[in-house]
Design brief:
Rossmann fold; 2 domains; TYRAAT2_C; nine-stranded mixed β-sheet; coiled coil; Arogenate dehydrogenase 2, chloroplastic; about 270 residues; alpha/beta; NAD(P)-bd_dom_sf
């Protein structure tokens, strides 16, 4: 894994097409527009009015979107719909070699699908901005941006795309998709799982909150802002998450057994 910080290198404007213009796609688009890039979008939902207000060209037809000769096609679909959507795209409509990048929260799955589906002349960059509309609301400075240069021939386009995030001050983390998924399973997935458990327990703020409990409330509220589709995607599409869930279950059983053993010890003392 290599790490680099922000760079002030000159930025070349790109034609960027976004596939899936939901909250996260819109979030990224606003910064890209601010930097002077030309954006287009396509999505299953009709965002034509919103795109008009943002200065983004919206394509209802995927064919016309692919014919628009974008330098970069950025895929911002959900984890679970990624494979289906990509395989349904009429990629024969591409007019020239294009850099395809994704921003999914898992990485081995999109890498495998992109390598399987895309034309050989298409470049592939797997990325994961480790932030979103809430954490990145006031800027991206010092926020992590992971990327894996899976198949890059056009170094200029790839460098110019990465420069978008460098320019905003992101901490640039180059690592393999496999390494990312290993780390994410024991961090992001576990964080979301604990938050979901706390939500199922319906924990609420009390009049005697400790700082630790307030942190748990914040964790629950933060993770529940994300859809169950996103959370389940972290499990279904990351092979390492299954092991982490098993580890969590095992850890809970161990703690429960320790408490039971201590209770038995205390009860034995009480009877003396």
């Amino acid at each position: 894994m290599s790490v680099s910080s922000s760079s002030s290198s000159p930025l070349t404007n790109l034609k960027i097409g976004i596939v899936g213009f939901g909250n996260f796609g819109q979030f990224l688009a606003k910064t890209m527009i601010k930097q002077g890039h030309t954006l287009s979008a396509t999505s299953r939902t009709d965002y034509s009015e919103l795109c008009l207000n943002l200065g983004v060209s919206f394509f209802r037809e995927v064919e016309a979107f692919l014919e628009a000769e974008n330098d970069v096609i950025l895929i911002c679909t959900s984890i679970l719909s990624f494979s289906e959507f990509l395989k349904s795209m009429p990629l024969h409509c591409l007019k020239r070699p294009t850099l395809f990048a994704d921003v999914l929260s898992v990485k081995e799955h999109p890498r495998e699908v992109l390598q399987q589906v895309l034309p050989e002349e298409s470049d592939i960059l797997c990325t994961h901005p480790m932030f979103g509309p809430e954490s990145g609301e006031n800027g991206w400075k010092d926020l992590p941006f992971m990327y894996d240069r899976v198949r890059i021939r056009n170094e200029v386009t790839c460098s110019n795309f990465l420069q978008i995030f460098k320019r905003e001050g992101c901490i640039m983390l180059e690592m393999s998709c496999e390494e990312h998924d290993k780390i994410a399973a024991s961090s992001q997935f576990i964080t979301h799982t604990i938050g979901r458990i706390l939500s199922e327990m319906e924990i609420k703020s009390t009049s005697i909150n400790t700082k630790g409990f307030e942190t748990l409330i914040q964790l629950k509220d933060s993770t529940m802002k994300d859809s169950f589709d996103l959370y389940s995607g972290l499990f279904v599409r990351n092979k390492f998450s299954k092991r982490e869930l098993e580890n969590l279950e095992l850890a809970f059983k161990k703690i429960k057994q320790k408490l039971q053993d201590r209770m038995n010890e205390v009860e034995d003392l009480d009877t003396i």
